[in-house]
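W.,

You were right to be curious about this one. When I first looked at the sequence I had no strong expectations either way, so I just let the prediction run and decided to look at it fresh. Below is the sequence, 118 residues in total, followed by the output.
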Amino acid sequence: VQLQASGGGLVQTGGSLRISCAVSGRPLSGWFLGWFRQFPGKEREFVGSIRWSDGSTSYGDSVEGRFTISRDKIKPTVYLQMNDLKPEDTAQYYCAARHFSRSSYDVWGQGTLVTVSS
């Protein structure tokens, strides 16, 4: 599996942004696609994930209710819709993938920077 994230940029506090992760390489049945973010000098933080087969999602506490993950099976692409953005959401955002048989994400795309101005 290969991942290509895009769509980051500058947005004002309270605004919205959607970032994308194009997926290629193999059929995705049995895979989870996740979004993580990393703040300067800190470890990556789990944002949320989606199970490719049925679209079920889970989210980290800090984004629950504001962020939504979806996928397009045709393209295939995973999206992270971010609403009500706050300056503390400023980070490098990464998409990642793991097969259901693995306990951790082991395929990573390059990051895309999201900056929220106050």
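Here's what jumped out at me. DSSP finds no helices and eleven strands in the chain. And, maybe more interesting for your project: The two ends are 37 Å apart (CA to CA).

Coffee later to discuss?

I.
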